[in-house]
Write a structure and sequence with these properties.
alpha/beta; eight-stranded mixed beta sheet; 36% helix; globular
Length: 293
């Protein structure tokens, strides 16, 4: 590890990504930067786009004709402002291929053009569609999982809160869970680790909504009992780390089956990067998903 907590490989990637990423304030510039480059994912037997209650989705089916499988409804990250189906195509391909589950990736509406609750409502609509279509997709409606990274992890957590009896699990990768941004990790990792506190505060402002509402900030939910089994993937050098740890503690206190996997030496967004920790984290998440239900 370097003295700042990152592995040497992660530090090199962090510096390169930071150099090419715009400051907060211009959605078009941020979207252009987020859509540049990217890696190709593995081959998946069937990949197609369709509509889900007015929301465009991409369906990844690794074994057409199979039945009884888990189904993961995936919400991409990007601060509710940027990214989409293409930016997270490789990650969704990898998750589907490694787990054997069908993955439905949701192209929810983005802020600031569509502030809260647009994205949250789209997320719930896609979940309901996925449950209704589970049999046709060769999946078990009782094995539907909500999943997402960063802001998509927030949407997955919010969707589970809104429909706890309809979700068998929630897979949350470094999610923002508290708009107040008052944790110690914000101070420790808010600068110099690619995802900055200034960016996160701006994303929250674009997204809107009452910061204290649990469907904006899930950490503010009064009661977490009845939520499904949970896997939290966190980066140790991430300003959002402590929010994830706090949510895990509260889930455990509420009797929820919750597992935290805290990955050292990496920063926010590491799942999509060519790092050993990312490969291990995605493989572990795929195994967890395959065992859900």
């Amino acid at each position: 590890m370097t003295r700042d907590g990152l592995s040497p490989e992660a530090r090199r990637l962090c510096d390169a990504m930071t150099a090419g990423f715009p400051p907060p304030g211009d959605p078009a510039a941020l979207r252009a930067a987020a859509s540049a480059g990217g890696r190709a994912g593995p081959e998946v037997a069937s990949v197609y786009d369709t509509g889900a209650e007015g929301v465009r989705v991409r369906v990844y089916d690794p074994a057409p004709g199979a039945v009884g499988r888990p189904l993961a409804v995936y919400f991409h990250g990007g601060g509710w402002v940027m990214c989409g189906l293409d930016t997270h195509d490789a990650l969704c391909r990898t998750l589907a291929a490694a787990s054997g589950a069908v993955v439905v990736s949701a192209d929810y509406r983005l802020a600031p053009e569509h502030p809260w609750p647009a994205a949250a409502d789209d997320a719930l609509a896609v979940l309901l569609w996925a449950r209704a279509e589970a049999g046709a997709l060769g999946c078990d409606a009782d094995r539907v999982v909500v999943a997402g990274d960063s802001s998509g992890g927030n949407l997955a957590a919010v969707t589970a809160l809104r429909a706890p009896g309809l979700v068998a699990g929630q897979l949350l990768a470094y999610p923002p869970l508290d708009a107040s941004m008052g944790s110690e990790s914000v101070a420790a990792y808010g600068r110099g680790y690619f995802h900055t506190a200034a960016h996160m505060a701006w994303y929250w402002d674009q997204y809107g909504g009452d910061p204290g509402h649990p469907h904006v900030s899930p950490l503010h939910a009064v009661d977490l009992t009845g939520l499904p089994r949970t896997l939290l993937l966190l980066a140790d050098c991430d300003l959002l780390r402590d929010e994830g740890l706090a949510y895990a503690r509260r889930l455990g206190e509420a009797g929820v089956d919750c597992e935290v996997r805290l990955h050292p030496g990496v920063f926010h967004g590491f799942l999509g990067l060519p790092l050993p920790a990312a490969k291990a984290a995605v493989a572990g998440a795929a195994a967890w998903l395959a065992a859900t239900g």
